[in-house]
């Protein structure tokens, strides 16, 4: 596991645990997990609450490396501009049977050029940035992990454990991977991709006030008549101009955006209420339970009922008094650019 200042401690240590457990549960030395920094010096993790003393420096690595992963974390942006680190990655690549990244470690992998032409998984927020940067890779936005040639990449943080369980399954069979997952009190396979974790954020990123007005109207009125004619009046634009400008500014179609908002609304209701599936469908703007199910299966790969089992509460969440709550909103721009504090 390649480390650099500002890595996430979970990204660094979490994916290594299954390899150690493979040894522990079998009584055999199947893997030798190590951590490495460019110079072998201790690396501060994001948040500053821990320093990781790596096993060795890049110069001390063996000639043959079975797998090299790059940890993620807010330090990935600085690491992606560190020419010494990137040069080491390019130098080590021919010696690695497999390479990859955990979460935003993909940013460093992409910057090295090693991932050019490959499919890559990463955290859903970083996927937005990399797509906007037009990186020379194919971003798999919904994947928990991806295997593309010799590259293995995972989505956000704990998805690195999913990645290493898959590697162990490939190396030593499903039973060992299943035993490790059970020991860690995990599922071996998640029921869906990471789309289910990513909220609809386009309204916050839209600069055109006319389009933003339409987006906010959709957010605030998901059950309303959201026909093109009605929304065109809301924007004070012709229908044709609205369709063209919306796609240009929001990078998605108007109809897709409406479905995104209604899907988010349905997810929130399933997570926080005990409403029936039919009521959720009606209150989210889908109308019928059948329509809601079709959208969930197509977009998330799970039924509304299965989604509720994974993310719902045992009882309806109490609505707090806004006057008693210190409301803190996500700094989306800071998160994407890496300027916010960890």
Question: Could you please describe the fold and organization of this structure?
Answer:
Helices cover 46% and strands 9% of the residues. It has 342 residues and is of the alpha/beta class. α7 packs antiparallel against α8 (174-183) and α10 crosses α11. The radius of gyration is 22 Å and the shape is globular. It contains 17 helices and ten strands. The protein has two domains: 9-195, Rossmann fold (3-Layer(aba) Sandwich); 202-319, Arc Repressor Mutant, subunit A.
Query: Distance between termini?
Result: 21 Å
What portion of the residues fall into strands of 2 or more residues? 5-15%
Low-confidence stretches: 198-205, 315-319
Average pLDDT, to the nearest integer? 87
Q: Count of DSSP helices?
A: 17
Radius of gyration: 22 Å
Number of domains: 2
Strand tally = 10
Task: Characterize the biggest β-sheet.
Answer: 4 strands, mixed
Give me the CATH fold name of the largest domain.
Rossmann fold
Shape estimate:
globular
Strand order of the largest sheet: 5-6-10-9
CATH class of the largest domain: Alpha Beta
What is this structure's SSE topology?
Elements: H1 9-13, H2 17-26, E1 36-37, E2 43-44, E3 51-52, E4 56-57, E5 65-70, H3 76-79, H4 83-92, E6 96-101, H5 105-112, E7 119-120, H6 124-132, E8 138-139, E9 145-148, E10 151-154, H7 159-172, H8 174-183, H9 202-205, H10 209-220, H11 228-235, H12 239-250, H13 254-272, H14 277-284, H15 289-299, H16 304-311, H17 332-337
Parallel strand pairs: 1-4, 5-6, 6-10, 7-8
Antiparallel strand pairs: 2-3, 9-10
């Amino acid at each position: 596991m390649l480390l650099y200042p500002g890595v996430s401690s979970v990204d660094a240590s979490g994916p290594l645990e299954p390899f150690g457990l493979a040894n522990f549960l079998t009584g055999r030395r199947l893997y030798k997990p190590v951590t490495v920094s460019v110079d072998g010096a201790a690396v501060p993790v994001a948040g500053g609450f821990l320093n990781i003393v790596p096993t060795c420096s890049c110069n001390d690595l063996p000639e043959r490396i079975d797998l090299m992963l790059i940890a993620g974390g807010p330090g990935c942006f600085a690491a992606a501009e560190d020419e010494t680190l990137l040069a080491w990655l390019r130098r080590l690549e021919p010696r690695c049977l497999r390479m990859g990244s955990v979460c935003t470690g993909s940013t460093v992998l992409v910057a090295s050029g090693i991932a050019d032409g490959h499919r890559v998984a990463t955290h859903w927020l970083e996927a937005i940035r990399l797509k906007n940067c037009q990186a020379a890779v194919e971003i798999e936005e919904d994947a928990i992990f991806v295997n593309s040639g010799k590259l293995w990449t995972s989505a956000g943080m704990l998805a690195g454990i999913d990645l290493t369980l898959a590697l162990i399954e490939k190396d030593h069979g499903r039973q060992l991977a299943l035993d490790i997952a059970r020991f860690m009190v995990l599922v071996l396979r998640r029921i869906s991709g990471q789309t289910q974790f990513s909220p609809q954020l386009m309204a916050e990123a839209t600069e055109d006030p006319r389009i933003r007005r339409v987006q906010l109207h959709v957010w605030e009125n998901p059950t309303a008549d959201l026909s093109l004619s009605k929304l065109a009046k809301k924007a004070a634009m012709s229908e044709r101009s609205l369709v063209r400008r919306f796609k240009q500014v929001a990078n998605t179609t108007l109809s897709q955006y409406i479905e995104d908002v209604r899907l988010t609304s349905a997810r929130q209701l399933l997570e926080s209420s005990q409403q029936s599936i039919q009521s959720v469908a009606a209150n989210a703007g889908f109308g019928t339970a059948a329509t809601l199910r079709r959208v969930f299966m197509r977009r998330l790969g799970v039924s509304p009922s299965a989604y509720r089992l994974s993310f719902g509460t045992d009882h309806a969440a109490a609505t707090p008094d806004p006057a008693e709550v210190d409301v803190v909103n996500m700094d989306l721009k800071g998160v994407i650019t890496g300027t916010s504090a960890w």
